[in-house]
Specification:
- By secondary structure, the chain is mainly beta.
- It has 3 helices and 48 strands.
- Strands 1, 2, 3, 4, 5, 6, 7, 8 and 9 form a 9-stranded mixed sheet that branches.
- The two termini are about 15 Å apart.
């Protein structure tokens, strides 16, 4: 028998034990708190679809599972089944690295390595002994750092489930006007042969239908067609239907490339035969890219210039027409046409060889409602017509000269009520020009990307040609509208290339008119691409068209032309930079930067430096790269994003003549998930330890109390 403990010892140990118990409990609670604070749940979005929610014994259904998580990790998908499955067949393993099927066919498991997305497609054949009325439950679990249970899918076992149908392929869009061919799969889920109708509808309207005969559990694939038009623009729901099953698919019907024409800009007046420029805005208001021919013409259909233009959906571009020449004086209408739209504006074309003077005020009235405008300093020839036009370029009065006029005054009646007061201008039209003398006094070669252009400053005011003895033949197609002039153009300025044997070859020509002083551009028919020095001779020729039906222009040889100039042009090698690869992430969150990587190669014969332009939604980033021949380099450009960039965007990259376009989606920033306590092992362990510690402490205090009671 042990002697009783001293009561002072018991009093001393009781607070110590209480403190130990509290420390133990606090430690356990702390461990729980740390676990809760450190770990977040696995955020999962998942979808499981089946080809049918009813099936007969011995029947087959298809199952498709897709899921994505909030972070990259190793994932395991386990799909389990609660009734007898006769067969499991994997149709598409997606990105699974390994798939295991239970020997008893009660589950299928797929493993995925370092990913945040999974996909798996498989088929289940139901055991023939399964009873009608049972329900097949498919329960899926996705496991990574933590586990997530997918929604349960239930499938009824029936005696005659009928014929199911689904879209074998799932297109997302079609351009209005095109025919969409959709592949569909039809399967007899029952155990008797049958013939059923299959119908395709678009927003409830039938667009195609057929009949299908199937043996028990037989499956077949067929194609149904939908002819679209612009009344379908936007989202359209397609539905497949048999008497017992349906499947739906949403299709975006896109507007085809449609080029809208606007903002035609050109001078209100121009000089006959003198070049001018015009611009027009072309916008593709469709949803898809397209290419069209943009034509600048006169009101009678005479083409002045054409441009081949390709635009992405929604893209806008300003088209420039350069060196436009109208050879007939008068009031014309410039018309710009695309295949879908047109716009126009008037232009007054004046003769360069006539002059008039209009008074600031009207000098008198002839009769009520009309007034006489006296036009002075008239310099025209017999048969020429003087028109008065108002500020809208409308002719308000005309007179034709009955004889040559040199400084005389003419009177033209106009309708005062309709057109005056207001600004008035004069326009002279004529059909002939006197032959004078001309010679070019300066020829300059210009370097361009296409080769060499020769610019000639020409004054055709005085030049006397002798009889022609030698002719050079030029196809009219090579001249600036020479065939359209009536009477024909009087002069040709030609560029002749001089070879090593002293032979001359005509390589470029342009037309000149008497009485003009202008700069003329002559394009070489064959651009110079070979580096080195090249010699040319510039000659002026007089025109002899001969038979108007002759498609060629005959021009005099050089021995009768008092002008001949030699030129020497040096063509230098240039580096040729091209984009061999460009990449950017497919999506980023708003506020993050976009890192664009561009690999550039110098495929030319000399080294050089080139700028790398990267444009994203109005942001432009610029970098430079220097490369020797055959070298390549990768440049990384970082572009910030903001809320204004949210949505689908494009990244345009330009390096020299090489360009590339990438597509990217700017997404909303993800919300921070709420913290919970998914680390069940640490939490449960800490809770058990704390509870166990408290039980021990209570037991110890209880025993001590009994001992004290028994001894005291």
């Amino acid at each position: 028998m042990h002697p009783p403990e001293d009561s002072s010892n018991r009093a001393r140990w009781q607070p110590i034990a209480l403190v130990a118990m509290l420390i133990f409990a606090i430690a356990a609670i702390g461990i729980v708190g740390i676990a809760v604070g450190m770990v977040q749940p696995m955020d999962v979005s998942s979808d499981r679809s089946v080809t049918s929610t009813v099936v007969a014994p011995n029947g087959t259904i298809g199952v498709s599972v897709e899921a994505s998580t909030d972070e990259v990790q190793n994932l395991t998908l386990n799909e389990s089944f609660d009734i007898d499955i006769a067969h499991i067949a994997v149709m598409d393993s997606g990105n699974a690295t390994n798939i295991t099927i239970d020997d008893n066919r009660t589950w299928i498991e797929a493993n995925y390595t370092d990913t945040e997305t999974i996909s798996l497609e498989y088929r289940l054949t139901i055991d023939g002994n399964v009873s009608v009325g049972e329900v097949l439950s498919i329960v899926g679990t996705l496991t990574g750092d933590t586990s997530h249970q997918l929604e349960t899918t239930e499938i009824d076992i029936v005696e005659d489930p009928g014929v199911t149908v689904w879209f074998s392929e799932k297109p997302t869009s079609v351009v209005a006007g095109e025919e969409l061919a959709v592949n569909v799969t039809v399967e007899n889920l029952g155990n008797t042969s049958t013939t059923v109708p299959v119908e395709l509808t678009a927003d409830g309207s039938s667009v195609d239908a057929t009949e299908v005969s199937l043996d028990p559990f037989e499956q077949t694939t067929l194609t149904l067609n939908w002819q679209t038009n612009e009344t379908h623009l936007g989202a359209v729901e397609l539905e497949l239907a048999t008497p017992t099953h349906t499947d739906t698919l949403s299709i975006d019907v896109l507007k085809p490339a449609t080029f809208e024409v606007s903002n035609l800009s050109a001078p209100s007046t121009a000089t006959q035969f003198a070049p001018f420029d015009a611009t027009v805005t072309i916008e593709n208001i469709g949803d898809v890219a397209g290419a069209q021919t943009i034509t600048l013409a006169l009101e009678d259909g005479t083409e002045l210039s054409t441009v081949e233009l390709a635009l992405d959906g929604g893209e806008e571009f300003m088209v420039s027409f350069s060196d436009i020449v109208i050879d007939e004086a008068g009031i014309h209408t410039l018309v710009v046409n695309s295949e879908d739209d047109s716009t126009d504006r008037p232009i007054v074309v004046e003769s360069p060889d006539a002059a008039v003077s209009i008074p600031d005020q009207l000098l008198g009235a002839n009769t009520e409602g009309t007034a006489a405008v006296f036009v002075s300093e008239v310099l025209v020839e017999e048969g020429w017509t003087i028109h008065l036009v108002d500020d809208t370029d409308t002719v308000i009065g005309s007179v034709t000269a009955e004889e040559d006029l040199d400084g005389e005054t003419l009177m033209i009646d106009v309708n005062v009520d309709e057109h005056l007061p207001g600004s008035v201008d004069a326009l002279i039209t004529t059909g002939s020009h006197p032959i004078g003398e001309s010679f070019p006094d300066e020829i300059t070669p210009l370097a361009t990307d296409a080769g060499v252009i020769f610019e000639a400053s020409v004054d055709t005011s005085s030049l006397n040609f002798e009889d022609q003895t030698e002719l050079v033949v030029i196809d009219r197609a090579n001249l600036d509208g020479g065939d359209a002039y009536d009477p024909p153009i009087p002069y040709i300025l030609g560029i002749h290339q001089l070879d090593v044997d002293g032979e001359l070859t005509l390589v470029g020509a342009t037309s000149l008119l008497q009485g003009t002083e202008t700069n003329v551009l002559i394009d070489l028919e064959t651009p110079i691409t070979q580096p080195g020095t090249h010699d040319f001779i510039v000659k002026l020729h007089q025109v002899d068209l001969g038979d108007r039906g002759d498609p060629y222009v005959h021009v005099a040889g050089d021995e009768i032309v008092p002008y001949r100039s030699g030129l020497s042009v040096t063509v230098f090698e240039t580096p040729t930079f091209t984009i061999t690869n460009a990449s950017a992430p497919s999506s980023v969150h708003v506020g993050d930067s976009i890192d664009v990587e561009v690999t550039i190669s110098n495929v030319g014969d000399v080294g050089g430096t080139e700028s790398v332009w990267v444009e994203f939604n109005g942001h432009i980033a610029l970098s430079e790269v220097a490369l020797e021949p055959g070298q390549n380099d990768t440049v990384t450009v970082s572009i910030p994003t903001s809320r204004a960039d949210i949505g689908s965007q494009t990244i345009d990259i330009d390096v020299g003549d090489s360009s590339e376009r990438l597509h990217i989606t700017i997404e909303q920033a993800p919300e921070s998930p709420a913290t919970t306590s998914p680390v069940y092992g640490m939490t449960i362990t800490a809770a058990l330890l704390g509870g166990f510690g408290m039980l021990i402490a209570l037991f110890w205090f209880s025993r001590r109390r009994e001992m004290l009671t028994s001894t005291g």
